[in-house]
Amino acid sequence: MPTDPITTTGEVLHKFSENAFKVSLLNGKEIIAHPARDMAERIAEVIPGARVALEMTPFDFEKGRIVEIV
Questions:
Q1: Chain segment 32-69, per-residue pLDDT in tens
Q2: 11 lies in which domain range?
Q3: Which pTM does this prediction carry?
C-alpha cells in the first residue's frame, strides 16, 4: 500500500558529506537528509543556512530527501 510522501521545508545546519546533511525542520526537529538524484547538478548550492524543500515518508520521521532549494 504506497503512501504519498510528506512535504515540508527546513534549513541546512551541517554538511556531513556530499550525500548527507543535518536539516532543521520548521518545528525544530533535526533530521538527516540526502539529496534526490535530480539535485545532482545543484548539490554545491546545498550549504549550511540554505532553505530546502524535503520529502519524508510517513513511516520514518528521522530521515528525508532534499528535492529542491527554496
A1: 999 999 998 999 999 999 999 999 999 999 999 999 99
A2: 6-69
A3: 0.91
Query: Looking at residue 28, which CATH number applies to its domain?
Result: 2.40.50.140
Q: How many CB atoms lie within 10 A of CB 19?
A: 10
| 20 occurs within a structural domain | yes
Non-local (6+) Cβ contacts of 55 within 8 A are 5, 6, 7, 36, 64, 65, 67
| CA–CA–CA angle 38, 42, 43 (5° rounding) | 95
- How far apart CA 2 and CA 10 sit, in angstroms, is 25
